[in-house]
């Protein structure tokens, strides 16, 4: 993939030949560029920092899916800072102002953020597929500890893969008739970078989109034909048999339908993230492929600005999607910003708590943290007898059994 800030080396002046008379950007272009880039990058940086904070500081937000979203937020922050801010300085000064070390470091972090974001999207797509289409396996595969290990592998792989840019980038002098400008460019001709461009295009754009198309198609099929995974129903039946001495607090169908709705909401939200990733990266990726066969390359200033804005928007829009499509994220954002009147923590439905306890106790591996995503986004709990979080999950059943045997509660 072409560098977002580097200049094509083929346009640099060979030896002592000049490039003609240099003309600065128009005032209109500078104002529009600085305003739009500052607005998108500023909001994106704030939004992604909020995503990281709410997941790290809120216990019930620490789910496997949200771990991948934190990884995506960190990658987006890299893109916004390493690609967006140099764009502002370029519009202001017309040249590269960060020196040789800045050229190497900024180029490296650009590619690292771009590639890590693509891998993070692929990771949560696979996690959603396993969780929806293979719910039994999900109890052992979609765990918090496994998600952390996968994220470490993603960042280790992309960090090593992008090391080559330390050796492929350099600062160059653009010699014009009226001025000499510094730029962050490539060390050799653009022709030698084509294998890298097409490898990035295939591995970090085409393949993730193809995989996401197939997996979300299978997920949609499962949600339409079988909206609720069978394991939750089976565990709920087992729970009913074990609690014959008491009354059921809420109906199984009610909690089952709520879980199904919650899973649909999470899956739709992540599908929107993937769709926007494909659409917003398409202009720039297409430009790189087309320019690989053009001589001279197409470098219209306004179109380049449009492509860059699409990239920045892709990295900035995800927190907006979370806020719009996830009640849990919306509530966490409000709590982080101290917005709205303070409300006491909602009490959890006993039937939901017991169902989750049975699921946890039925697993032989790591705790199935994946189900936290669905369980925490259920409708407003109604039972006043069991406050949420009163006891650890491993002790809830014995406590709730005694409460049920002592009281008769209507379903």
From TrEMBL:
GO terms for molecular function: thyrotropin-releasing hormone receptor activity. Residues 47-322 form the G-protein coupled receptors family 1 profile domain. It is found in: Cell membrane. InterPro entries: GPCR_Rhodpsn, GPCR_Rhodpsn_7TM, TRH_rcpt_1. It is a multi-pass membrane protein. SUPFAM superfamilies: Family A G protein-coupled receptor-like (SSF81321). Residues 380-399 are annotated as: Disordered. GO terms for cellular component: plasma membrane. CDD domains: 7tmA_TRH-R (cd14995). Its main location: membrane. PROSITE patterns: G_PROTEIN_RECEP_F1_1, G_PROTEIN_RECEP_F1_2. Keywords: Cell membrane, Disulfide bond, G-protein coupled receptor, Glycoprotein, Membrane, Receptor, Transducer, Transmembrane, Transmembrane helix. The chain crosses the membrane at residues 31-56, 68-88, 150-168, 202-224, 266-283, 303-325. GO terms for biological process: phospholipase C-activating G protein-coupled receptor signaling pathway. Receptor for thyrotropin-releasing hormone (TRH). Upon ligand binding, this G-protein-coupled receptor triggers activation of the phosphatidylinositol (IP3)-calcium-protein kinase C (PKC) pathway. Belongs to the G-protein coupled receptor 1 family. This is Thyrotropin-releasing hormone receptor. It comes from Muraenolepis orangiensis (Patagonian moray cod).
